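Can't paste images in this forum, so I'm doing it all in text. The chain is below; anyone willing to post the predicted C-alpha cells underneath?
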Amino acid sequence: MPQTLPYGSWPSPISAAAVAAGSHPIEAGRFVGDEIWWLERLPAEGGRTAVRRTVDGVPETLLPAPWDARSRVHEYGGAAWAVTDDGLSAFVEKTDQRVWAFRPGEPPYPLTPADTGMRFGDLQIVGDEVWTVREVHGTASRVPPRDIVAVPLDGAAADDAAMVRVVVGGSDFVAYPRVSPDGSQLAWIAWDHPRMPWDGTELRVGDLVDGAVPEWSAITGGSEESVLQPEWTGPGELTVASDRSGWWNLYRWAGTDVLALAPAEAETGGPLWNLGLRWFVPLADGRILAVRTRGADELVVIDPVAGVVRGIPSPLTSRVLIEDARDSLVLLRGAGSATFGGLWVFDLDADDPQPRLVRGNVDEELDAAWLPTARAVTVDGPHGPVHAFAYPPTNPDATAPEGELPPYLVLAHGGPTANASGGASLDVAYFTSRGIGVLDVNYGGSTGYGRAYRERLTGQWGIVDRDDVVAAASELADRGLADGARLAIRGGSAGGWTVLCALTASYRFAAGISRYGVADLRALAADTHDFEARYLDGLVGPLPEAEPVYVDRSPLSHLDRLTTPMLIEQGLDDAVVPPAQSEAVRDALAARGIVHAYLAFEGEAHGFRRADTLIRSLEAELGFLGAILGFETPGVPPLELSPR
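Text version of the structure:
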C-alpha cells in the first residue's frame, strides 16, 4: 500500500551515489574480429575513458589506468579512438594529446611527437596510417591551424614531426576525412569562421596525389547549407546529410547528379559538437540505415534503388547514433523513454530485429515502476510553438496528499544548439522518484525540429530561450499539472545562461540552479576557445558593432533584478566558462542578501565527470530545492545557505 507523503519527500532507492557510480557513458562501439569493443567513461577512476570489451559477459578493460582516451580538438573532441580488425588500437591520450597505439596486454607506444602543441581527433585507420584531424596550438596564428594529416602506425613520427604528413587544409575547420574505397580520392567537410557547422559547411572532394590533395572542389554547401558525414557508397558516389531542404536529409552525389534519398520533415543529422558523429550507415547490400529525429528518434532502412523506406520498430528513441556495421549487423548507441542508454547490437535481417544490449550506460538495476515515461508536450510561446518533454513524479510506494500539486524542476539544455530527447535518465529519476516532476524544454534554437526552429535563436539568445522556458513552465502550472509557486529551473553552460536570463527578467521561478552558466557575453567572447570564438556572432551579433547588445543582454548587467534564491556550481578548471563568471553572480547575490550557495569543484572543467563531484552536486541540488520549495529530503541533509 503506497504511503501518503508530500511531494519531494518520497523515499527513493535512487541515491546520488548510485547515479554517479552507475553512469558510465558508452561511445565508439566497433566490431573487432568476433568481438565488440567500445570506449567507456569510468567515473570511479577519475572520469577517464578506457577501451573495453566483454569477456564471458563481463566487461574487461583493455586500456589500463592511467591512460585516458580523450581528444581536445575543438575542446569537445570526438572520435579519439580507432581500431583495426585484428585489434591494433590508436587513441589520443588526454594528458598530452599525442596519438598512441597499443594491442591488448602490451604497453602503448607513441605515434606523434611530444611537446609540439598538436592535438588530434576524428581518427581513422587507413592502411598502415592513422588519418586524423590535427589542431595546432602555440603558433602565432590567431586561429589554431587545422588540417587533415596522416600518421604512420609504426611510430616513425614519434620523434620527428616532419613524418606527420599533411594531406589537406585550407579552412579554419575540417572534419570527416573519408578516403574513397579505391584510395584515389578524399572527401571531407570544411567551414570557416564565423559559421558554426550547423550554420554552413562545404563538402569538398579532391584527388589524392602521393598521399596528399593538391587541388579540391566544393561539391555542395556554403553559408546557408549544413552538410555532414560524407560516406562513399560507390565509385565516385557520395552520400551525405544536408539541410538544404530545411531538414537534415540524405542526398547522393554522383558527378554532377544529385538525388534526394527519401525526403522527410525529420532530421538525419545534428549539431557537430563532437567529431565523428554518425547518423546513418551504408550497408553492404546498398541499403542505408538512418536515424530520423523529430523531437524523438526513429530508425529507418532506406533502399535507394527501390525507393522504399522501412521503419524499424525499436525501443530506442533518444540520442540514437550509429557506431558501426558489418553486413546486416549494426552497432548503435542510444536510449528509450523507459530504457537506459547504452551500446546495442541488432541484426537488420532477423525476422524480428530487436536491439540486444552489449553494455549499458548505467549499472543500476531499477524496476520500470520507478522510471517516469517522458511525455512530449507542445505549448504556445511568444515566438511560436515550444517543444518539451514532461516527466511526472513517479514512485510505486508513495502518493501525495489529495489536492497537492507537485513541484517541478525545469531543465534548460546546454549548447544552446542541442536538444532534449525524452530518454530514460537516472538523473531525472533521482528527482521524479522523490516526487519532483521534471520538464525538459527544447526552446527555440534547439535541434531536432528543422532549420527554421534552430534559427529562431539567431540574434535572440537570451530572449527566445528565456521566454520559451517561462512559457513552458507557466503552461504546466496553468494546466494544473504543477504547483506554480514551486517551480525551479536548472541549466548548465548555455543552459545556465538561460537560467540567469529567466531569473533576471521574470518572477516565474522560485529557485534557480546554474551549473557553470554564462553570465557575461563580452567575457565569454573574449575568453572562450576558438571553436566557439564566433558562435556569438549568430546568437547575438558581431563585435564590436553589437557590443551594446552584449552588455544589455548579459545577466551580469542586471544582477540588481535578482530576487530568486540560487545554487551556483562551477568547475575550477573550466576554460569554456571560467569561474570568474559564476563568482560574479555569487558576489552579487551576497551583496544583495539573497539566499544562495556556491559550490566550486577542483579538478573539474566544463561538465562534471568525477564520481565525488556528481554525488555532491546532486545531493546539493536536492537539499537546495527542499530548503527553498519547502519539503524534507530524507537521507540528504539540507544545503547550507547564505545568508542563514
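Residues 37 and 390 are 35 Å apart (CA to CA). The chain has ten helices and 38 strands.
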